[in-house]
């Protein structure tokens, strides 16, 4: 099935790309989560608009990405969450929580979809989180999860 991506999907493409995927993947995952729309001749006109919107939000050059990377890696991020006596969190830390904490710590605004967690954060402690700024630039940010 041919679809037009409306958001960046890791391993598949960026917003505005027209890709061919299996029917079930498109019907059951991409379209219901608004990551993509079905390709039509009329939808092809929307591709230019989606790409324009993507250019506004994305970091255009590697130099800009390296500047943002330097800012991100210089920020100390502390995230206060509710935890039990043994240090286990009530729930887990999400990429949206980390993006908000980076901005609150004085760092640049980061899109939550660019924050990559290796595994869910469910206990107190220090963690390394990757932020994909550009296709070739990844910033590693230290996040300290403390009890609130």
Key terms:
148 residues, alpha+beta, Ribosomal Protein L9, domain 1, Ribosomal Protein L9, domain 2, four-stranded mixed beta sheet, three-stranded antiparallel beta sheet, 9 strands, 30% helix, globular, rRNA-binding, rRNA binding, Ribosomal_bL9, structural constituent of ribosome
Tell me about this structure.
The model has no long low-confidence stretch (mean pLDDT 87). Helices cover 30% and strands 30% of the residues. It is α+β, with helices and mostly antiparallel strands and 148 residues long. The protein is globular, with a radius of gyration of 18 Å. The strands form three sheets. A four-stranded mixed β-sheet has the order 4-9-8-6. The termini are far apart. It has two domains: 60 residues, Ribosomal Protein L9, domain 1 (3-Layer(aba) Sandwich); 82 residues, Ribosomal Protein L9, domain 2 (Roll), CATH 3.10.430.100.
Q: What is the makeup of the main sheet? A: 4 strands, mixed
Radius of gyration, CA atoms, in whole angstroms: 18 Å
At CATH level 3, the topology of the largest domain is Ribosomal Protein L9, domain 2
Secondary-structure element pattern, one letter each: EEHEHHEEHEEEE
Parts with pLDDT < 50 across at least 5 consecutive residues = none
CATH superfamily (homologous) name of the largest domain: Ribosomal protein L9, C-terminal domain
Note the gap between the termini: 47 Å
Structural class: alpha+beta
Number of domains: 2
Tally of individual helices:
4
CATH hierarchy, class of the largest domain: Alpha Beta
Give the % helix.
25-40%
Q: What is the architecture of the largest domain at the second tier of CATH?
A: Roll
Number of strands: 9
Instruction: Please tell me the overall pLDDT.
Output: 87
What percent of residues are in strands?
A: 25-35%
Strand order of the largest sheet: 4-9-8-6
**Shape annotation:** globular
Pfam family, one: Ribosomal_L9_N
Function: Binds to the 23S rRNA.
GO biological process, one term: translation
Organism: Streptomyces lavendulae subsp. lavendulae
